[in-house]
From TrEMBL:
Keywords: DNA-binding, Nucleus. The lineage of its organism: Eukaryota, Metazoa, Ecdysozoa, Nematoda, Chromadorea. InterPro entries: FH_FOXQ2-like, Fork_head_dom, FOX_domain-containing, TF_fork_head_CS_1, TF_fork_head_CS_2, WH-like_DNA-bd_sf, WH_DNA-bd_sf. Transmembrane segments: none annotated. It comes from Caenorhabditis elegans. This is Fork-head domain-containing protein. Its main location: nucleus. PANTHER family: FORK-HEAD DOMAIN-CONTAINING PROTEIN, FORKHEAD BOX PROTEIN. It is found in: Nucleus. Residues 147-156 have a biased composition (Acidic residues).
Length: 194
């Protein structure tokens, strides 16, 4: 392809600087990566699974974002040769999934520690990283109504553990305040009140 482009440019009065299209490298320079990094398979775990494994591997059962990144790269060299996209996905998953909670400010004052929500610890320790199940457990833990879907989540069922939380309640910051139930309404009912 590069050769065709060179021939085209040399056979006409065109030049790259006149081109409205930027020159895009057509090959990927793998010389900066070790051969093993180039051949690493993509992990089979979801981002939720990777984050949970990282956090639960810590003696304190909490990590700052940079530590999560570092753990993932150390355990899965596949990510060392990837761009920033996977880091964005990690941040996104930490912030938007109820199974992860902020567990206090970092010692340096920059950022927060992240922990696994106490309602999800046992499942995650067993390697069960199913997002919907984790969300139901968190909502049930907070006293919110949960649709029936997986009866194995029920309190008192085999596998449930009423053990005390890992972190003091004062450190929990559930980025998911209980919401009022959505009530159905009609346009007429709204207009009656105005």
């Amino acid at each position: 392809m590069e050769e065709i482009l060179r021939q085209f440019l040399s056979s006409s009065n065109h030049s790259l600087k006149d081109s409205p299209f930027p020159m895009i490298p057509l090959s990927f320079d793998t010389s900066i990566m070790s051969p093993t990094e180039c051949q690493q398979p993509k992990p089979q775990h979801s981002y939720i699974g990777l984050i949970a494994m990282a956090i639960l591997s810590s003696p304190q059962k909490k990590m700052v974002l940079a530590e999560v990144y570092e753990w993932i790269m150390n355990e899965y060299p596949y990510f060392r040769s990837r761009g920033a996209g996977w880091r964005n996905s990690i941040r996104h998953n930490l912030s938007l999934n109820d199974c992860f909670v902020k567990a206090g400010r970092a010692a340096n004052g920059k950022g927060h520690y992240w922990a696994v929500h106490p309602a999800c610890v046992k499942d995650f320790e067993r390697g069960d990283f199913r997002r919907r199940r984790a969300q139901r457990k968190v909502r049930r833990h907070m006293g919110l109504q949960v649709e029936d879907g997986d009866s194995s989540d029920e309190e008192g069922s085999p596998g449930s553990d009423p053990s005390p939380p890992i972190f003091p309640t004062a450190l929990w910051n559930f980025n998911c305040a209980p919401r009022a139930p959505i009530k159905s309404f009609t346009i007429e009912a709204i207009l009656e009140h105005h």
